[in-house]
Specification:
alpha/beta; 28 strands; single chain; iron-sulfur; Mopterin_OxRdtase
């Protein structure tokens, strides 16, 4: 019973086989081996090199996330008799049950005040959608995309919105890595990874902070294991001791499986939630004290180091220890590992960005890398761990409220348009406008905007204020049945990535653009997102200078993107050349930064106030989950059987009169979770961990002032015995 949990291993192989058997071995093989990009995380695999092959030609590059993502695509259509049940009946189902009802295979519509959906024809659905958008003004509409959609559909979506007259175009990155884009923009002048996958094969030090790749990016664990095998160091900084980051049995490695797994972390720091900046300042302080900074690099390739150094030296160890809960010796030990590294890569996730100072956190990761010249050369750099498989591509091709002036000018010239100049609203701004009754219509392409939002009760009410919502989706989720009581909702069924009628493209977290063939037919009644958008655009703007019907040919879309979006010039003939590529100008293998003078900048920020007397909640995902989609209730890596649970340090349990396995009420200023199971967990004092999206009812709508990202990872909470 006390045997330590190991990530990966035979149980994951058996799970994969069980899932494959459930959906059919032939279906599974067809889905996984076809030349289509994996639809799970942004690490990327598949495309023209083969369905289970990455850009280094490593095979098999596949994980449970890949199989889980495919499992819901390979389902029969949901019977109409099920779809027409009352909303009350559908709300009896949780997210897992809704996802596994089957594929949505017919358009459905709910009129205002109706208590259920009814089938509707494609033509009637598109006519209705056009009438509802035309019944209001463009500034009272918004257009949202998840990171699952293709570059082609995303480009048409943002062009449709801007041609219609609004820049209220946004995507899910505002709730995940927008802080990364802003923070890297101020320091090195770019918002994405500076490394490619091959760089991970050349480094001897990887720091992973605020992320749990064993659950969320399992194939990244392979790279961490290889670093250890080369004699390198892997340092994890995370308030919680995650089993899969301590030891992981790589399913594709017989040796790893036979010996019960490989050790991943060579060192592991567990700071208090919200103290990331203090940790990073402490590491910088120790590096400077050891004289390990790269003075030549700093002098030749950066600005503002003197102010940065002065601030670090003025920050006392007592302040750092009080903020982090770590000892000076802990931090100095890790700093010593970094100081001797020849080539270092820094990787981070939403444990860094989901704070009111998320941008500051990212800036200090960049500061720490710049301190030793670990950006701008081969084998070293910065790697934000993206979630959705094409979330980065969706941003690259313009699904965001503000575009560069040169991109807007090129778009206007290409199509003979005059585009709106008003600054568009980001995701949270659109939600708050909706809550204030200032949004009449919304187009939501993929994702689960309701459950992606903080403060679930508020989110449902805000969405309910939007008079008409058009959803494009493959399966049903809670976002389709909540927030629609007093409004209209139209849901249209779309093709999955490997069912697209024509090839599509996606961009990985390494800035690598892949080509997906599509072509698999499962349901004859679903349509590609791009087709739906083009038909809607034609109805909305029959006299538009943009020939949206021509954009039903994906090649035409890609040729337009190649002319308009810098870095994507190679997209124009990718379907002919079959040559996948890195976005031009993104990778940094020389110390030439994307700033006006080509030099990086050290940024100096004050530490946020310490909240030592307050429990702070972080929301987390389970191993059997991808974003809001729950594939299995059990979280095997944390030994949890119930998602309605909270995890705390055993000393905190005792201090609050709680016992492991007991029941409690967890509350915040925004909501309450009653009768939750409390579990002792190896986590920093003062920290509470609960599952996303269930715990979103406790989180608030306050955002980082620079990235406008909510603080999902640092919510003050209270707990008492039930």
């Amino acid at each position: 019973m006390n045997k330590p949990i190991v990530g990966g291993g035979p149980k994951k192989v058996l799970y994969a086989l069980k899932t494959a058997r459930r959906i059919g071995l032939e279906n599974t093989a067809k889905a996984l081996t076809a030349h289509n990009t994996c639809k799970a995380c942004g690490l990327g695999m598949g495309g023209q090199r083969g369905g289970m092959t990455n850009e280094l030609d490593e095979f098999p590059s596949v994980c449970n996330k890949s199989i889980q993502a495919q499992s819901t695509d390979i389902q029969p259509g949901i019977p109409v008799e099920v779809l027409t049940h009352s909303l009350a009946d559908l709300r009896e189902l949780d997210g897992h049950e809704l996802e596994h009802l089957g594929r949505l295979s017919t358009p459905i519509y709910k009129s205002r005040y109706a208590d259920r959906f009814e089938p509707i024809s494609w033509d009637d659905a598109l006519d209705l959608a056009a009438r509802r958008f035309l019944a209001t003004t463009p500034e009272r509409t918004f257009f949202y995309s998840s990171g699952r959609s293709s570059n082609e559909a995303g480009f048409v979506l943002q062009l449709l919105a801007r041609a219609f007259g609004t820049n209220n175009v946004n995507n899910c990155s505002y709730y995940c890595h927008q802080a990364t884009g802003v923070g890297l923009g101020t320091t090195i002048g770019t918002g994405t990874s500076t490394v490619e996958l091959e760089d991970l094969s050349l480094c001897d030090f990887i720091l992973v902070i605020g992320a749990n790749p064993s659950s969320n990016h399992p194939r990244f664990i392979h790279q961490l294991k290889k670093c250890r095998e080369r004699g390198g160091e892997v340092v994890i900084i995370n308030p919680a001791k995650e089993a899969g980051l301590v030891k992981f049995a790589i399913p594709k490695s017989p040796k790893s499986m036979l010996k019960g797994g490989d050790f991943i972390a060579s060192d592991y720091l567990q700071p208090r939630i919200g103290s990331d900046m203090a940790v990073l300042k402490g590491l910088a302080k120790a590096v400077l004290a050891a004289g390990a900074e790269d003075t030549d690099f700093i002098a030749q390739h950066s600005h503002d180091f003197a102010a940065f150094r002065a601030d670090i030296e003025a920050t006392g160890w007592d302040e750092i220890e009080a903020a982090t809960g770590l000892t000076r010796a802990d931090i100095e030990r890790v700093a010593a590992l970094y100081s001797k590294a020849k080539s270092a890569v820094f990787a981070w996730g939403m444990g860094i960005t989901h704070h009111l100072n998320g941008v500051d956190n990212v800036e200090y990761i960049a500061n720490l890398a710049l301190l030793r010249g670990q950006i701008g050369r081969v084998g070293a750099g910065l790697l934000p761990l993206r979630g959705h498989s094409n979330v980065q591509g969706i941003g690259t091709i313009g699904v965001k409220p503000v575009l560069a002036k040169e991109v807007m000018a090129k778009m206007e010239a290409a199509f003979g348009l005059t585009l709106p100049v008003e600054t568009g609203l980001d995701t949270m701004a659109c939600m708050k406008a909706a809550a204030d009754g200032k949004m009449d219509a919304a187009l939501i392409m993929g994702g689960n905007l309701y459950e992606a939002n903080p403060d679930s009760s508020w989110a449902a009410e805000a969405l309910s204020q939007v008079g008409f919502k058009l959803y494009l989706t493959t399966t049903l989720n809670k976002g389709h049945i909540h927030g629609i009581d007093d409004s209209e909702a139209l849901i249209l069924p779309v093709t999955a990535r490997d069912e697209e009628w024509q090839p599509t493209t996606q961009e990985s977290m390494f800035n690598y653009v892949r080509l997906s063939d599509g072509g698999i037919t499962r349901l004859k009644t679903v349509r590609p997102e791009s087709d739906i958008l083009c038909d809607l655009a034609t109805r909305l703007m029959p006299d538009s200078p943009v020939d949206f019907q021509a954009f039903k040919a994906h090649k035409t879309i890609r040729e337009a993107i190649a002319k308009i979006v810098p870095g994507l010039e190679d997209l124009a003939d990718i379907d002919v050349a079959k040559r996948e590529f890195h976005v031009r100008g993104r990778l940094m293998h020389t110390p030439e930064f994307h700033t006006p003078d080509g030099k990086a900048r050290f940024i100096t920020r004050p530490l946020p106030p310490v909240r030592g007397d307050t429990l702070l909640l972080t929301t987390v995902r389970s191993e059997g989950q991808f974003n809001t989609i729950v594939y299995e209730y059990k979280d095997s890596y944390r030994g949890m059987d119930d998602r309605w649970s909270v995890m705390m340090n055993v000393a905190d349990l005792a201090e609050h009169g709680l016992s492991d396995g007991g029941k409690a009420t967890l509350s915040s200023d925004h909501g309450i979770m009653e009768n939750v199971t409390v579990r002792a967990f190896d986590i920093a004092r003062g920290s509470v961990m609960a599952y996303y999206p269930e715990a979103n009812i406790l989180t608030g709508t306050a955002v980082d002032p620079r990235s406008h990202t909510p603080a999902f990872k640092s919510t003050p909470v209270r707990i008492r015995a039930a």
